[in-house]
């Protein structure tokens, strides 16, 4: 899971970045509207936090040009004025939710979690895949009720695959959504992480689709399907 | 009384006009009377000259009483009289001849002025009427046509009198005619003055009505054509309203800037304090939360205070509500809440759009937060007010908790995200507009919020 933070107040920007990293997200950030617009267009983000009062280009304009350009990433806007016309204007421009300043970080985290979930079509904050359970709220993973300890990157990887359960996710897509902008990307390391993850989970939920990528699937369902096919 | 332009115009135009009319009438009257008197005297003199011409003194020096006279001197008490007399030694009068019209009566000549040959005097006639008399002093010799007579230096006085009765009669006619004329003139003057004043002041009355309309939220500007004298005033008023709006807008922007300036460091403080579990961090978090609440509260109040003074503010209700519902439905899409809207046609708030957005936005947001599946929103006009009702099918609010929900910085439920100030800000805005917020139990099972705000006509 990778998010983009566009906020010109350095202190707030830093707090948001820290909080989201703490919650196992890959985070890119900028304080400039135009740069943010470019990053939102080109980077593969699962959600974007956008402050409305930005230097360079204001938040509403950035949002409008994203939506006009076909960028469908969920966007949470931060409004400082806190007046309804600003919120409604943001929503009308294509935002998916808003948080009025001053806010508590937990609130922003909760809203972003909900947006990512909603975008992936999940209603509950818990995603289950056979014996595997992933709680997006507490970022805890359990297999048959036993907690599994994952690193931040492993969690991110599993979370992304589970959010897009049943769909084949390519290596390059995973790289896009797992690593921050400046990170030295190497798609071969993905295989290493998948291997580690499989070992830690101990259940076969991540399938390798040769030549295409990976797919998270409920092993019971796969078996059932295989049985039905035969 | 002179505080009113109408009264001033009436007083300052009607009084001089009436005075002028009165002076005119008096001048006409005195002229007419002068001319009449002149004519009267002239006829009197003509008769006198005629009599003097006919008067004869016979050879023995006595006056010949057989004066040939016009018929007006023959009819008894005709109003025309003459009398010829001499002065005797005792200073009395010896009448030597009279007109038949005098019958046995005599003219009572009051006094004989020394050295005057012809003079006018007045007396009471035989029938008690007023008489105008002209008296001529003539030497006996003259009357004898210079024939030799024994007493050529004797003096005879010939007096001709005429009743002033006809003069009085024509005067009365004159007075009546003038009186009627004056009356008509005065009525005409008054009516035309009133018409003039009313007609001239009509644009002022219109301006007043228009201003009243602005006050009551019917219109936002003075409209319509005004005469050249009032046009600048109307323009100034419109400019003033513009300026007022700009000032409010500026104040609002500044309040917004202040909000931005304060909220960002408060956010940082709050969130920074939460990363640690020391007593200092806890105290900072607590105080920062208090500051947040105060900042929100007073910024909202400052904004409302600036707003409620705006003249001519008028906001259509339906578009505001539909925008808010659309936005909230989008945000809360995954909650699958149906909003049943019943917003009357042509409802207008006497107030600013932003305030309506804050009130309805906060109440609706609260309803969305708590509702299970349904929200019913109603807006209608009741008398001079707009009544908004927002009800949800959530858990509702216990009666004893309701007053708290509207109080400053109260947050009844800490587990649901939100500023917790929503309803208290609503209460602030609504009370600034002189409206009312009532919390009750909804038929749907949840909370029902009833809000009254002033309606624009």
Gist?
The complex is a heterodimer of chains A (230) and B (457). Chain A is an alpha/beta fold and 230 residues long.
What does this structure look like?
The complex is a heterodimer of chains A (230) and B (457). Helices cover 45% and strands 20% of the residues of chain A. Chain A has 230 residues and is of the alpha/beta class. Chain A folds into two domains: 119 residues, 3-Layer(aba) Sandwich (Rossmann fold); 104 residues, Winged helix-like DNA-binding domain superfamily/Winged helix DNA-binding domain (Arc Repressor Mutant, subunit A, Orthogonal Bundle). Chain B has 457 residues and is of the alpha+beta class. Chain B is built from nine helices and twelve strands. In chain B, the strands form three sheets. Chain B has a five-stranded antiparallel sheet with strand order 2-1-5-4-3. Chain B starts with a helix and ends with a strand. At the A-B interface, α1, α4, β5 and α5 of A face α4, α5, α6 and α7 of B.
Sheet with the most strands, sense and barrel status of chain B: 5 strands, antiparallel
CATH architecture name of the largest domain in chain A: 3-Layer(aba) Sandwich
Distance between the termini of chain A: 37 Å
The percent of residues in helical segments of chain B reads 40-55%
Low-confidence region ranges of chain A: 226-230
Helix/strand structural class of chain B: alpha+beta
CATH homologous superfamily of the largest domain in chain A? Answer: Response regulator
User: Which chain pair has the greatest contact?
Assistant: A-B, 32 and 32 residues
Shape of chain A: globular
Query: Beta-strand percentage of chain B?
Result: 15-25%
Average pLDDT of chain A works out at 86
For this structure, the CATH topology of the largest domain in chain A is Rossmann fold
Task: Give a count of the beta strands of chain A, DSSP E runs of length 2 or more.
Answer: 11
Number of helices of chain B: 9
- Rg of chain B (CA only): 52 Å
Largest sheet of chain A: 5 strands, parallel
Number of helices of chain A: 9
Which regions of chain B have little confidence, pLDDT < 50, spanning 5+ residues?
409-419
């Amino acid at each position: 899971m990778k998010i983009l933070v566009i906020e010109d107040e350095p202190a707030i920007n830093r707090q948001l970045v820290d909080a989201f990293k703490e919650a196992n997200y890959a985070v890119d950030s900028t304080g400039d509207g135009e740069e943010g617009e470019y990053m939102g267009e080109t980077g593969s983000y699962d959600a974007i936090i956008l402050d409305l009062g930005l230097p360079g280009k204001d938040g509403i304009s950035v949002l409008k040009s994203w939506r006009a350009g076909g960028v469908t990433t969920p966007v949470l806007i931060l409004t400082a004025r806190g007046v309804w016309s600003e919120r409604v204007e943001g929503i009308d421009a294509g935002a998916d939710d808003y948080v009025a300043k001053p806010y508590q970080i937990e609130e922003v985290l909760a809203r972003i979690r909900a947006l990512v979930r909603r975008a992936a079509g999940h209603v509950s904050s818990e995603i289950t895949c056979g014996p595997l359970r992933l709680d997006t709220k507490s970022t805890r993973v359990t297999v048959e009720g036993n907690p599994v300890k994952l690193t931040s990157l492993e969690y991110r990887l599993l979370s992304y695959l589970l959010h897009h359960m049943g769909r084949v996710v390519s290596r390059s897509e995973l790289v896009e959504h797992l690593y921050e902008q400046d990170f030295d990307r190497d798609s071969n390391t993905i295989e290493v992480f998948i291997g580690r993850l499989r070992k830690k989970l101990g259940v076969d939920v991540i399938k390798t689709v040769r030549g295409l990528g990976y797919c998270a699937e409920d092993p019971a369902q796969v078996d059932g399907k295989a049985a039905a096919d035969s | 009384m002179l505080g009113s332009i109408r009264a001033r115009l009436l007083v300052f135009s009607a009084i001089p006009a009436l005075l002028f009319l009165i002076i005119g009438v008096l001048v006409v009257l005195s002229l007419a009377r002068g001319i009449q008197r002149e004519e009267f005297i002239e006829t009197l003199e003509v008769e006198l000259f005629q009599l003097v011409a006919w008067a004869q003194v016979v050879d023995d020096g006595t006056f010949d009483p057989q004066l040939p006279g016009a018929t007006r001197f023959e009819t008894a008490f005709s109003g025309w009289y003459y009398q010829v007399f001499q002065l005797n030694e005792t200073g009395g009068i010896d009448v030597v001849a009279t007109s038949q019209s005098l019958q046995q009566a005599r003219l009572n000549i009051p006094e004989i002025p020394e050295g005057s040959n012809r003079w006018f005097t007045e007396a009471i006639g035989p029938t008690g009427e007023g008489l105008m008399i002209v008296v001529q002093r003539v030497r006996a010799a003259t009357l004898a046509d210079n024939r030799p007579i024994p007493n050529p230096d004797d003096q005879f006085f010939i007096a001709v009198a005429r009743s002033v009765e006809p003069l009085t009669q024509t005067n009365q006619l004159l007075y009546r005619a003038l009186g009627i004329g004056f009356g008509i003139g005065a009525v005409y003057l008054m009516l035309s003055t009133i018409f003039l004043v009313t007609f001239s002041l009509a644009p002022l009355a219109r301006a007043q009505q228009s201003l009243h309309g602005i006050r009551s939220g019917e219109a936002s500007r003075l409209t319509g054509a005004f005469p050249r004298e009032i046009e600048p005033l109307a323009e100034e008023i419109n400019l003033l309203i513009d300026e007022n709006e700009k000032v409010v807008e500026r104040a609002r922007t500044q309040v917004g800037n202040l909000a931005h300036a304060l909220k960002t460091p408060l956010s940082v403080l709050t969130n920074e304090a939460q990363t640690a579990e020391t007593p200092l961090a806890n105290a900072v978090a607590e105080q920062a939360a208090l500051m947040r609440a105060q900042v929100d509260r007073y910024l909202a109040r400052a904004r409302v205070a600036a707003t409620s003074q705006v003249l001519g503010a008028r906001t259509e209700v339906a578009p505001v509500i539909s925008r808010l519902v659309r936005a909230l439905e989008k945000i809360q899409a995954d909650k699958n809440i149906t909003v049943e809207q019943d917003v009357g046609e042509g409802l207008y708030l006497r107030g600013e759009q932003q305030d309506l957005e804050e009130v309805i936005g906060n109440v609706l947001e609260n309803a969305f937060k708590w509702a299970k599946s349904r929200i019913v929103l109603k807006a209608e006009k009741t008398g001079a007010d707009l009544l908004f009702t927002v009800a949800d099918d959530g858990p509702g609010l216990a009666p004893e908790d309701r007053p708290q929900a509207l109080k400053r910085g109260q947050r009844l439920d800490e587990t649901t995200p939100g500023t917790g100030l929503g309803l208290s800000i609503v209460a602030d805005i609504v009370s600034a507009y002189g409206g009312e917020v009532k919390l009750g139990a909804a038929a749907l099972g949840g909370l029902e919020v009833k809000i009254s705000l002033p309606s624009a006509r």
